[in-house]
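Researcher: Next entry: Asp/Glu/Hydantoin racemase (Caballeronia pedi).
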Amino acid sequence: MTMIVVVHTGPVTVEPLKAQFAQQLPDARVVNIVDDSLLADVRAAGRLTPEVTARLFSYMSNAQAMGADLILNACSSVGEATDVLRGMIRTPIIKVDESMAEQACALGARVGVVATVSTTLEPTARLIRRKAVQHERKVDVTECIAEGAFEALLAGDGAKHDDILRRAIVDLADHVDVIVLAQVSMARLVPTLDALPVPVLSSPHSGVAAVKRALAQSDTRAGAALV
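Model: Predicted structure:
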């Protein structure tokens, strides 16, 4: 059975990704590693720290030792650590937002990024700019923080979180060609945004789709090696 280990920096990303795995890879065994101190430490420092990267390395090393076929990094705030760890971990690592960033660059030159914490907003914007350079596209990234939404979510007020976030997305839609939701926890709003004049991208669906493609490519290479 295919084993996928997902590394989370908080509990809010577990259910959205679990739902996508059930839909797209129902036969896979999905193991969740959750350490909510990772995001808390990144927010406290205002940036990704060597200590957080070291802890991520330990979790991904454990995933490798467990025999995982693939590791999914579920948090954009620590996504840049993956760029370092890919050179240290043999097991393939997918970033949950990488495919979403590529889609955004393909959909328009004016990309809006919405987040509820700056430590997620900034690395997501950098990722989109890097993908644009890789694909030789010119993009202008507009960054937007939905102030107070994350605090509402932590306090258990999901309705307030969604209301603040929805207003920020609607306001931004008039100024961009595509909107990127920088956090997995935002994905639940997408079905309520159909009336917007621009597409809204979230990472759970595209992130798990990237995992599925990577596994298929691995199987293809393995099959070719046996011929």
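Model: Note for the record: The chain is about 50% helix and 15% strand.
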